[in-house]
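The records we work with from here on pair a chain with its fold. These numbers are not coordinates but entries in a learned vocabulary of local backbone shapes. To see the layout at work, look at the sequence and tokens printed below.
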Amino acid sequence: MKKFDTDTDEMEKSEDYKPTYIHEQHNNNCQQFFGPITNCTFTMPAPQPSSSKKPKATKQKNAGEKKSSVKPKTLKYFTHGNNGVLMRQRKRVDIIIKKFSEWGWVDANTSPNDFDAFFEGVPRHCNINWTGSSTILTILLQELLKQSYIEKQTGCAAKSLVEQQFGRTANSDRTRLDGDAHEKIELTLLILDTKNPLPERRRCSGSDQTDIKDAALREIFSGKLRSTKGI
């Protein structure tokens, strides 16, 4: 058989395998075969990225996350620039931390430096672990902010201090204050006021420290305690 005849037969055979529904081929990205295929390897092109996919939007931090990074306010009590006044103020804050620890209002392991920082007026986390009630803390801060020896600051409120500085929920229900807590808040206010005297130093048994027992404080501030109003 001639080669021409063989080629003609193969073409006719291929036409027999061609599906009847295919008349023309317009897809240039694929090849169609109409006969048996053997000993061949087919490879497919890599898929192209779809232009319809939108880039992922950058997740924005919400207002709550931003607010948590803001340093809370502190009370502006210390008077820098006058060493005499500053020393008296520091001495009184030292008495307060001892009394708060004794009364169970702050953790006994509270750092004196952190406690002092709460009276600097510079925004920062003071890491004070308040162990008293939220009501005592709220009302104590409300009364401290009223005192003339605490400098006024914009945005420094008792509620925000309770929540941001101490991580507690503010509660200003004064009916929940018993007489003991009421008196201790009064004593705190009086001790911090440098115009008020402190109890005499104890000079017995080799001690030369100020007597800061509750009884001694009540005695020295007896007149003030009776006249203190508004708590």
